[in-house]
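queue> pop job 88
queue> type: inverse folding (structure -> sequence)
queue> payload:
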């Protein structure tokens, strides 16, 4: 446990600057929202900066992981000669980035509430729908960010494996490593097999106060996404342990 804590703290030190910069940016966005609230007549328009900030968080984990991995690349021999398996080393970085994105989104979530309370006199049902929709958006934002994050780790690993094999041509293979699986996945999602594997465990989200149709998702889709995350992560760890060289 002590070794894990030390590893986690090291990863936090590498990326703490981007974490604190992100919190400052959140505060600036809230200040912009307050300013728009004073000059704009449209009460909903003023929350566009907050919506944009939440959407931008899909890039949060890829950015923090890329910064962490770029730092590791400067002393790659230390990473590769670490006695711990690559799965533990990369998991520490993922958990570190995950905690950061949760803290950042939680800050925006709470600040949004402080802005909404004095601006609107909402009935109880509207409050419930507002908070629940915020949680739903945040959870899906985190899930997408995790998927992008594991792809960044895999591409970084492939680059360091290929650069000693084929040099500058490794960039072309990295592009292919993104385009080809994405194309295959897009084709697969249009097949009956994909429907069978994912369209089960229906979850319906109702927001009657928003006057919108119920939002339908499936537990199978979440399981499918998590299996992809686990598969990409396992492949990354295997390549680092067995193929990447200084």
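queue> result:
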């Amino acid at each position: 446990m002590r070794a894990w804590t030390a590893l986690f703290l090291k990863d936090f030190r590498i990326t703490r600057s981007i974490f604190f910069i992100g919190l400052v940016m959140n505060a600036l966005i809230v200040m912009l929202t307050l300013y728009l609230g004073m000059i704009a007549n449209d009460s909903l328009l003023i929350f566009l900066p907050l919506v944009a900030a939440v959407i931008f968080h899909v890039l949060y984990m890829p950015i923090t992981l890329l910064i962490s991995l770029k730092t590791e690349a400067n002393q790659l021999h230390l990473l590769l000669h670490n006695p711990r398996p690559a799965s533990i080393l990369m998991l520490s970085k993922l958990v570190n980035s995950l905690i950061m994105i949760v803290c950042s989104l939680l800050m925006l979530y709470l600040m949004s509430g402080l802005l909404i309370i004095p601006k609107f006199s909402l009935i109880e049902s509207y409050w419930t729908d507002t908070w629940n929709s915020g949680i739903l958006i945040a959870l899906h934002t985190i899930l997408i960010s995790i998927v992008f994050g594991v792809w960044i780790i895999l591409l970084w690993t492939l680059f360091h494996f290929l650069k000693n094999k084929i040099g500058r041509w490794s960039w072309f293979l990295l592009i292919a490593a993104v385009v080809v699986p994405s194309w295959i996945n897009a084709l697969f999602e249009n097949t009956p097999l994909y429907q069978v594997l994912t369209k089960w465990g229906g979850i319906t989200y109702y927001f009657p106060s928003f006057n919108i149709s119920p939002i339908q998702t499936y537990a199978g889709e979440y399981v499918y996404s998590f299996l992809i995350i686990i598969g990409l992560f396992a492949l990354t760890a295997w390549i680092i342990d067995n193929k990447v060289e200084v």
